């Protein structure tokens, strides 16, 4: 790795810290060809990937700062107690933009990125199948049907975490950015008004059900997240499949972080209702530290899949649209379908980008590759026992 | 591989999901009958129960994984010295039988075959069985009721089958399915050595310089033994394989003799001819340790290689090659299996191999010797302790006055009460057809698939007035019975088996049987009690039976008296004879050149080759031979229900040479004088052009044994499975494989049966490649 | 060069598919068999070829290189892991790029699956399930020295040639002594490039 530690290249080792936890007795890491390839690219074009990534990070975080400033009506609505959260979210924006840029600069992702967005913006596609994209987004990103095929329990637990996090994010980000304000005409309720960017969205009675939900949205989110994360944690301590190759920093920390955030958040409510604020200060700091840590961790650990997962929709949309027009590409030897023609061409392009000299081999199905290799071994290496 | 790969893609509506993927990359249906996401392995609370495989005569060691709830859920390799952690696909999947949804959990009964089987209580089933036994025996004599045992039972249970028939039922008619297996070898061993077991342990194979495998598809029927074969070759041994098919082991053999089925005696006698001609005999050994050599020698003179070449359909040079390789080797071993035993001259075929070994002095030395590879798990042990028609425990003869007296004393019965010798399994079926046997109890066998000439077998069983069957899955035979007793699988009881080396190994109990299931021991003892012989059957379990078995075998050739469960657990297995608890057992026989005949000599026998029973003519010019495939075991009642094995080999095929003009997968009708059936063709150059091969694990209408001939060896009474006359024809439709029978109200576990009817062609005798599955 | 790894010898394979069943018993992917067993000489002989992941070392893991989601991790000991379940988007790039035809894909679960050298076992010094049960030694797990202890003088090769490209792998194949200097043919049916015979 030639890159500075805060700027990892888009290799298969995006978080070196997390990925070095290996069983004892294993040898040192070998130089990866991908990383050296990227390193060469970085040397040749010093401003290319790294530069663009930094630029993207700076632009996105600057935009976020502007959005905070203007969204809170030039900080008039800003609650200074939330400054650490806001700062962390700016770091998050930088990290995500940076990592995203690095990620989509690698050959495999770049080509898919281009093709995915091309399909997305194709008016032709839209006319032919206007519902395809929303349907795909709903199944992959919302209901995550594919997880059900892995295991029903994992699907259920992930849905709990997912919806809990979505709810929490919808509430907390606008709050910490000073976009939401809750004001009361009467000073201390029960009639409240919720305002976005200073504009009144709705008014509600804090003692009504809606009011209760409005004020306890984060508690609800915590109640959703805790059982989901607890299930995954339990599974990681018990299931041998899950435990294989499991790394603490990559697999355990995110779950622990979610649980700590949720539990401290709930305890804050508990403290204010039942303990009359006892221990509130300490809990608030603990909660804040865990949230800030998690936000900064997002771009570099397991949580980056949140940013990556929409690529599944892009990939699926690309395959779907190319399949509508194209002939299916069949194996040169057995004539069984491999995938769409556009997909195979895309893959070959990726392989050429990576200087993998056997991209023609992609025109054979895996079985024929093995059979041909077996035949070659029989006829050219040895036929029999010795 | 669908007929038209593009068919799916021409649909106007393209599904959003799933997308395409090449064949063989996306199939996970082979999960073995359990939905893949339910296969969990928890880190905690797992115990490993050491035991052995329930299947073939190698008896590989394995651990069964038992969860905290006491249920068997997996398998783990075990470093037992028989198999050194190696397992075959059958062994790996064996554990899935234990908690299989197809298990029988309540007795099934019907009063006539017009009714359907229904679940009844144990009392009702036992009472009905006892009343039928009494009725038939009262009206037609004790011998009108028969018992057929099995060689996959623990030795304790095989002992009990013989005792149950003779003491509780007082019938002469008891036999077992080992009659279809290796009785020819047993007969030859008794004639030549007066001891019925292989002479050398498997480990001797590693020491040999020349290994001859005759009619033994080691790679498929005893896969784990292959490591010994390869180990010998790594140390420079020559491998000779005698087989009409180029099997996986034959493919790379130094000499592969693809002779015509049914000509083994001619071949081996011709090899002996060359050995004599070239002066390669061990005359001093012959003089010191054999009788009958002069006669054998004179007879061999009539079998020059040219004659063998003509009879066997092979080049004459191969006879010379084999003779030189075998006789010149400092140490040579010969193993044979069903390939030379399943013949009307099965015993004689084995004797020709013994003659060859004796003439070259390759007997009773480390790395030199002779043996048979038993097919069933307890193929060796099952024939030792009295479930054979003519044998009593300890290999005693039922016709020998002294032996009868000894056993009557142990069993506590009068000599007049002990019946005489009965008839063999196939003969019993004929007697059933003739009404001489009117009632039958079958334990651990499935003759509807395993006996030859299915129509005769079906007729025989249909003619019986009463038929009860013990099994843990409803076999094709059990589905035709009046009463079916649900019994334990091997992992739910303890007991011993003797493997092909005559090494006695201990199987341990890994889980409690499901509710409603009893051990075979309990059922036999309970029936005996109700028949009034309860005092002779007061056994609490296998341990009690084994103690009596040890006493009953003490002092005989097959002496188990020094073998105890504790010793077996300590040692990992002891080869009999083992006359005392401080005796180490006898892994290798004849080390000092003496046999178990009174004169201590090997009694060489003259063998005259004769053609098979089913004559060739213009209508039936080809040879049909049958055998096993690696994924299935015997009648398939167990393995046809295990998803992974069904995926690997979903159905039988007819293996034909390309010269007959079939394309792979095309329907081919195989016609014999017994009937005809249509199989998909597996077209391969790895079979003789005059031969058709069909594996026999499936029931009619896809049964090889609907075509085979029920001709028997006059001595061993083994049927001639390995050769009958046939022809092949083009046909329209392939005969479907029926689903395995299950208890009323159930369906055969669908997850395991998906590929049974799929139309894909076979790809290799060992099964379909992992990518050639739908 | 090679540490503990799998050595494949198709010459001893009897095609029994014990490895296929055993693979399913491996705890890290229980219920799913990831090894391939092909009968490569169909119609002529019963020859067969088991295929486990070859754990390519140079270029390191083409499957990981073509992965658009950075889902395939190569551990420090050279084991190419199966796709990370949180990242894999099920695009099948790895399935079709792998020169050995190894990865499989669960289309419903949008998840690639492949041999990970039974990482749950090998990480603790146990042999992978397939090589543990293989009745013939066609799949052998250990060091070259351990292999030679079983099979004196045996030679292995870890370089494969596909057209003009070579791939060096972590898993090796047994070759006759006189072939040990040559790369093993990868099977890519290339005859000539620009009129020049490129077969070795």
Principal-axis shape of chain C: globular
Helix content of chain A: 55-70%
Number of structurally distinct domains of chain C: 1
Percent strand of chain C: 25-35%
Task: Give the class of chain C from helix and strand content and strand pairing.
Answer: alpha+beta
CATH architecture of chain C: 2-Layer Sandwich
Biggest interface: A-C, 81 and 81 residues
Largest sheet of chain C: 6 strands, mixed
What is the typical, i.e. mean, pLDDT of chain C?
A: 88
Q: What's the tally of helices of chain C?
A: 6
Largest sheet of chain A at a glance? 3 strands, antiparallel
Oligomer: heterotrimer
Describe the structure.
The complex is a heterotrimer of chains A (386), B (774) and C (200). Helix content of chain A is 65%, strand content 6%. Chain A is mainly α. Among the domains of chain A are: 31-105, no CATH class; 326-381, no CATH class. In chain A, a hairpin with a 7-residue loop joins β1 (180-183) and β2. In chain A, α3 (83-105) runs parallel beside α12 and α4 packs across α14. The two termini of chain A are 44 Å apart. Chain B has 774 residues and is an alpha/beta fold. Among the domains of chain B are: 42-97, N-terminal domain of TfIIb; 115-181 and 378-488 and 514-541, Rossmann fold, CATH 3.40.50.740; 183-372, Dimethylsulfoxide Reductase, domain 2 (3-Layer(aba) Sandwich). Chain B has a 7-stranded mixed beta sheet with strand order 5-4-18-17-16-6-7, with helices on both faces. A 6-stranded mixed beta sheet of chain B has the order 24-26-25-28-23-27, with no helix packed on it. Chain B has a 5-stranded parallel beta sheet with strand order 10-9-8-12-13. In chain B, a hairpin with an 8-residue loop joins β1 (47-52) and β2 (61-66). The model of chain B is unreliable at 1-11 (pLDDT under 50). Chain C has 200 residues and is α+β, with helices and mostly antiparallel strands. Chain C has one domain (5-188): 2-Layer Sandwich (Alpha-Beta Plaits), CATH 3.30.70.20. Chain C is 17% helix and 28% strand. In chain C, the strands form 5 sheets. In chain C, strands 1, 4, 9, 10, 11 and 12 form a 6-stranded mixed beta sheet that branches. Chain C has a two-stranded antiparallel ribbon with strand order 2-3. Chains B and C meet through β3, α1, α6, α7 and α22 of B and α1, β2, β7 and α5 of C.
């Amino acid at each position: 790795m030639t890159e500075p530690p805060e700027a990892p290249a888009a290799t298969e080792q995006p978080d070196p810290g997390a990925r070095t936890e290996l069983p004892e007795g294993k040898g040192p890491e070998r130089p990866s060809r991908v990383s050296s390839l990227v390193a060469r690219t970085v040397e040749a074009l010093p401003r290319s990937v790294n530069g663009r990534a930094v630029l993207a990070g700076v632009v996105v975080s600057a935009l976020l700062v502007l959005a905070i400033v203007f969204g809170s009506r030039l900080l008039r609505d800003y609650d200074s107690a939330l400054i650490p959260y806001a700062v962390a979210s700016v770091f998050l924006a930088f990290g995500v933009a940076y990592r995203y840029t690095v990620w989509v600069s690698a050959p495999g992702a770049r080509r898919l990125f281009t093709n995915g967005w091309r399909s997305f913006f194709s008016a032709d596609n839209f006319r032919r199948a206007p519902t395809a994209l929303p349907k795909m987004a709903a199944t992959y990103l919302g209901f995550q049907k594919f997880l059900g095929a892995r295991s029903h329990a994992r699907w259920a637990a992930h849905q709990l975490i997912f919806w809990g996090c979505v709810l929490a994010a919808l509430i907390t980000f606008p709050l910490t950015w000073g976009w939401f304000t809750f004001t009361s005409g009467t000073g201390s309720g029960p009639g409240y008004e919720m305002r976005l960017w200073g504009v009144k969205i709705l008014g509600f009675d804090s003692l009504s059900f809606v009011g209760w939900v409005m004020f306890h949205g984060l508690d609800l989110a915590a109640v959703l997240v805790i059982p989901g994360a607890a299930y995954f944690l339990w599974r990681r301590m018990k299931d041998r499949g899950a435990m294989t190759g499991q790394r603490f920093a990559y697999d355990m920390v995110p779950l622990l972080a979610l649980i700590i955030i949720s539990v401290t958040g709930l305890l804050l409510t508990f403290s204010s209702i039942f303990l009359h604020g006892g221990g509130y200060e300490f809990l608030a700091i603990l909660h804040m530290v865990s949230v800030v840590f998690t936000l900064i961790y997002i771009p570099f650990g397991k949580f980056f899949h949140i940013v990556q997962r929409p690529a599944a929709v892009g990939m699926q949309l690309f395959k779907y649209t190319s399949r509508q027009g194209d002939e299916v590409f069949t194996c040169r030897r057995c004539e069984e379908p491999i995938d769409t023609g556009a997909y195979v061409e895309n893959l070959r392009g990726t392989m050429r980008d990576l200087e993998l000299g056997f991209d023609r081999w992609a025109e054979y199905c895996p079985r024929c590759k093995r059979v041909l290799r077996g035949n070659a071994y029989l006829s050219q290496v040895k036929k029999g026992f010795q | 591989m669908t007929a038209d790969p593009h068919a799916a893609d021409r649909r106007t509506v393209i599904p959003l999901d799933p997308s395409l993927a090449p064949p063989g990359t996306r199939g996970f249906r082979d999960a073995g009958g359990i939905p893949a996401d339910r296969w969990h392995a928890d880190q905690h609370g797992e115990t490993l129960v050491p035991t052995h495989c329930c299947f073939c005569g190698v008896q590989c060691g394995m651990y069964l994984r038992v969860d905290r709830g006491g249920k068997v859920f997996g398998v783990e390799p075990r470093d037992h010295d028989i198999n050194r952690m190696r397992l075959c696909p059958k062994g790996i999947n064996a554990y899935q039988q234990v908690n299989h949804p197809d298990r029988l959990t309540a007795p099934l009964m019907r009063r006539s075959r017009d009714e359907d089987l229904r679940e009844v209580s144990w009392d009702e089933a036992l009472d009905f069985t006892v009343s039928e036994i009494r009725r038939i025996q009262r009206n037609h004599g004790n011998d009108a009721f028969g018992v057929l045992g099995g060689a996959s039972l623990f030795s304790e249970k095989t002992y009990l089958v013989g005792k149950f028939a003779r003491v509780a039922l007082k019938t002469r008619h008891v036999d077992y399915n080992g009659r279809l297996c290796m009785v020819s070898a047993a007969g030859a061993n008794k004639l030549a050595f007066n001891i019925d077991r292989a002479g050398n342990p498997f480990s001797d194979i590693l020491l040999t310089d020349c290994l001859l495998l005759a009619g033994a598809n080691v790679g498929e029927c005893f896969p784990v033994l292959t490591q010994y074969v390869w180990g010998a070759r790594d140390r420079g041994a020559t491998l000779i394989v005698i087989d009409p098919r180029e099997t996986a082991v034959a493919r790379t053999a130094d000499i592969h003799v693809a002779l015509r089925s049914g000509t083994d005696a001619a071949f081996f006698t011709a090899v002996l001819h060359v050995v004599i001609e070239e002066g390669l005999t061990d005359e001093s050994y012959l003089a010191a340790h054999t009788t009958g050599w002069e006669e054998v020698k004179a007879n061999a003179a009539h079998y020059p290689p040219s004659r063998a070449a003509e009879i066997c359909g092979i080049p004459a040079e191969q006879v010379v090659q084999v003779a030189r390789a075998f006789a010149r080797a400092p140490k040579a071993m010969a193993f044979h299996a069903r390939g030379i035993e399943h013949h009307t001259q099965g015993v004689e075929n084995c004797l020709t191999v013994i003659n060859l070994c004796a003439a070259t002095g390759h007997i009773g030395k480390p790395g030199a010797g002779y043996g048979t590879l038993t097919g069933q798990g307890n193929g060796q042990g099952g024939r030792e302790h009295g479930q054979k028609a003519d044998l009593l425990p300890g290999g005693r003869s039922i016709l020998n006055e002294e032996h009868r007296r000894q056993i009557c004393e142990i069993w506590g019965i009068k000599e007049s009460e002990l019946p005489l010798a009965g008839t063999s399994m196939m003969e019993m079926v004929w007697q059933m057809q003739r009404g001489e046997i009117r009632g039958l109890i079958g334990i651990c066998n499935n003759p509807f698939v395993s006996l030859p000439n299915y129509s005769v077998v079906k007729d025989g069983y249909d003619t019986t007035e009463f038929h009860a069957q013990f099994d843990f899955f409803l076999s094709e035979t059990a589905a035709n019975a009046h009463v079916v007793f649900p019994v334990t699988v091997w992992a739910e009881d303890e007991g011993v088996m003797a493997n092909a080396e005559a090494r006695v190994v201990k199987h341990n109990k890994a889980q409690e049987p499901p509710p409603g299931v009893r051990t075979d021991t309990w059922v036999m003892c309970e029936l005996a009690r109700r028949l009034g012989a309860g005092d002779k059957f007061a056994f609490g379990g296998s341990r009690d039976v084994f103690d009596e078995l040890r006493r009953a075998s003490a002092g005989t050739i097959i002496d188990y008296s020094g073998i105890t469960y504790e010793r077996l657990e300590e040692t990992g297995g002891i080869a009999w004879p083992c006359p005392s608890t401080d005796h180490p057992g006898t892994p290798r026989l004849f080390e000092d050149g003496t046999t178990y005949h009174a004169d201590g000599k090997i009694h060489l026998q003259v063998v005259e080759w004769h053609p098979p029973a089913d004559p060739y003519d213009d209508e039936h010019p080809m040879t049909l031979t049958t055998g096993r495939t690696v994924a299935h075991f015997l009648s398939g009642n167990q393995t046809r229900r295990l998803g992974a094995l069904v995926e690997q080999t979903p159905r039988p095929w007819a293996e034909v040479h390309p010269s007959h003009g079939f394309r792979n997968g095309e329907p081919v009708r195989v016609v014999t004088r017994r009937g005809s059936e249509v199989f998909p063709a597996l077209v391969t150059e790895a079979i003789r052009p005059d031969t058709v091969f069909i594996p026999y694990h499936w029931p009619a209408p896809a049964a090889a044994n609907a075509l085979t001939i029920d001709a028997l060896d006059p001595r061993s009474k083994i049927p001639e499975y390995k050769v009958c006359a046939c022809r092949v024809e083009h046909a329209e439709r392939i005969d479907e494989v029926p689903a395995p029978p299950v208890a009323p109200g159930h369906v055969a576990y669908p997850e395991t049966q998906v590929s049974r009817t799929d139309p894909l062609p076979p790809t290799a005798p060992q099964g379909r490649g992992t990518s050639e599955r739908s | 060069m090679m540490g503990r790894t799998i050595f494949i010898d198709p010459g001893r394979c009897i095609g029994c598919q014990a490895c296929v069943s055993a693979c399913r018993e491996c705890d890290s992917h229980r219920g799913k068999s990831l090894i391939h067993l092909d009968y490569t000489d169909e119609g002529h002989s019963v020859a067969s070829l088991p295929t486990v992941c070859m754990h390519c070392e140079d270029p390191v893991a083409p499957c990981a290189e073509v992965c658009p989601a950075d889902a395939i991790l190569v551990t420090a000991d050279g084991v190419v892991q199966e796709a990370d379940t949180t990242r894999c988007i099920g695009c099948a790039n790895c399935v079709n790029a792998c020169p050995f035809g190894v990865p499989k894909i669960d289309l419903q679960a949008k998840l690639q699956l492949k041999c990970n050298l039974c990482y749950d076992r090998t990480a603790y010094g146990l042999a992978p399930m397939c090589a543990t049960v293989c009745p013939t030694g066609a799949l052998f797990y250990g060091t070259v020295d351990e292999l030679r202890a079983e099979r004196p003088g045996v030679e292995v090769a870890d370089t494969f040639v596909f057209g003009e490209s070579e791939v060096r792998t972590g898993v090796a194949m047994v070759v006759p002594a006189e072939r040990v200097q040559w790369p093993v043919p990868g099977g890519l049916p290339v005859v000539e490039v620009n009129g020049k015979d490129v077969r070795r």
